[in-house]
Amino acid sequence: MNKPLDFTATIAKPLHEEPIVPSLERRRLRTFIAMIVGDMAILLLSFATAGFVYEGEWWQHRAVLGAQLLTPLFLTICFYNNAYSARGLVDLRFAARKVAMALLIAAALLIFIAFYLKANAEFSRVVFTLGMAFSLPLLIALRWATTRAVRHLWGGRVRNELILQAGGPSFTLDRARSIDTFETGLDPESQDPYLLNRLGRILQNQDRVIVSCPHEKRGTWAFLLKSAGVSGEVVSEPAHGLGALGVNRYEGQERTTLIVSTGPLRLRARITKRVFDTVIAAGALLAFSPLLLFVALAIKLEDGGPVFFVQQRMGRGNRFFNLLKFRSMSVAGNDENGDRSTARDDDRVTRLGRFIRSTSIDELPQLINVLRGEMSLVGPRPHALGSRANAKLFWEVDSRYWRRHSLRPGLTGLAQVRGFRGSTDREVDLTERLQADLEYIKGWSLKRDIGIMLQTLKVLRHDRAY
After folding, report:
1. Which of 93, 198, 263, 388 has the fewest Cβ atoms nearer than 10 Å?
2. From CA 337, how far away is CA 447, in angstroms rounded?
3. CA nearest neighbour of 385 among 188, 204, 197
4. Where are the beta strands (DSSP E) in 181-223?
5. What is the DSSP string of 117-185?
6. Residue 405, SS3?
7. In a 10 Å sphere around its CB, with 0-12 CB exposed, 13-18 middle and 19+ buried, how is residue 147 labelled?
């Protein structure tokens, strides 16, 4: 058996847990939801009030109908003209201009549609005009209150921005946090997963990361930022080979940054994928609960050992998490680092374990990891830290290995449905599944996730699942 890895010996400085920065993205999302609910309430109440003022009837039918038809048009335009945006949380003029434009365009569209459908008689022009007059100042007042609250509660910060001073020209940005990589012992060329986990914790919840480093280090930092799945920039003059996505110029400083990464998924795609994961995982846990309880009891009765096997693996942003599986090996045979790949007729696998591994039932507890937000239903499969291909650690076989961690790891993935699973005796066993993982990340779509899940049903039993 190979000697267990001691990754911590490769780190020059002692590591301490970095505090995780609160997610301003989640705060922004909650604020936008509150604004949407507030806008809907304002429109409905304004038009209801208009009906009461003009016709003396509260909740007058024509007034409420006008609000109900106007609201979806208004919200749609708000989404497309960035009325619900980070800038709108701090810039009152911008927010007021955007919401006024959305309201006027929505009203014009509704009038046109009513005229075209000859439904003008359903509306009272006076009530509609009064409803618009009442709505606009209230919508702007909501923006004023929001910007004041953001300034008071968040200190005016709506984005987490981090500057990594890594030996390049000095760089500053208002309200941005700055870290000296030399003082904190962050070496971009290290292949140590523990150091990468530490960097991942530092980068977690950052909306923008800017690295100032020497010319010869730019490519390395660009690769790390892409692997971490964050919006990253490198302080630099235009340079070849970085795969820059754009350029940002900062007023008041003679500095230009190249945008080298944006993360694989935008906010809307991340929300869609997370909602899909949560709904399906919760439903699956409920549906499979009798099976889960039966397997847990059977494992306990077989040898009295723990039901679950918990192993530290690397997830999104190269950050560690504890993966859950039903224990399929004897207690003495558990391999925490994954130094020894499971082989056919492995003497560590229990009798029950052989069955639940061959049917993939041992993976079902990872539905809990999905609900925790540590995994996704579909994505690159997380590997044990000590996993090897042809006696080499996975990242020693192909340096692109770290890029597969820019998305949450999955219960299943494109590599698995293509048959790339099981032990990795040869280097090609890793490169084939790595290529599939990178292809998946590049071309993600909800339709593809659904397709992979359906294909997974065909490969639950597999001749390499031992």
Report:
1. 93
2. 35
3. 197
4. 208-212
5. TT-GGGS-HHHHHHHHHHHHHHHHHHHHHHHHHHHHHSTT--S-EEEEESSSS----TT-EEEETTTTT
6. helix
7. buried
- The answer for residues whose C-beta is within 8 angstroms of residue 385's C-beta and 6 or more apart is 5, 7, 193, 312, 313, 314, 337, 338
- Band the pLDDT of 35: cuts 50, 70, 90: very high
Neighbours of 299 (CB within 10 A): 23
Q: Classify the C-alpha dihedral 22-27-28-30 as positive or negative.
A: positive
Residue pLDDT, tens place only, 342-397: 656 677 888 998 899 888 899 999 999 999 999 999 999 999 888 888 888 888 88
Using a 10 angstrom Cβ sphere, with 0-12 exposed, 13-18 middle and 19 or more buried, the burial of residue 58 is exposed
Interatomic CA distance for residues 182 and 213, integer angstroms: 11
Domain boundaries, the chain: 7-18+160-262, 24-153, 267-459
Q: How far apart are CA 368 and CA 286, in angstroms?
A: 11
CB 241 within 8 A of CB 338: no
Question: Rounded to whole angstroms, how far apart are CA atoms 15 and 466?
Answer: 37
Residue 235 is which amino acid? V
Provide the whole-model pTM: 0.69
In angstroms, the CA 50 to CA 57 distance is 9
H or E element in which residue 435 lies: helix 427-442
- Between CA 266 and CA 245 the distance in angstroms is 15
Task: Give the whole-angstrom CA distance, residue 63 versus residue 45.
Answer: 10
How far, in Å, CA of 220 to CA of 187, rounded? 10
Q: Which residues of 69-92 are buried (b: 16+ CB within 10 A; e: fewer)?
A: bbbebbbebbeeeebbbbebbbee
Using CA atoms, how far apart are residues 421 and 451, in angstroms rounded to an integer?
A: 18
Helices (H), 58-124: 61-80, 92-116
- The pLDDT of residue 174: 81
How far apart are alpha carbons 374 and 369 in whole angstroms? 5
Nearest to 418 by CA among 455, 364, 379: 455
Please identify which residue in the block is written with the tokens 């997370």. 274
Q: Tell me if residue 384 falls in helix, strand or coil.
A: strand
**323-332 mean pLDDT:** 89
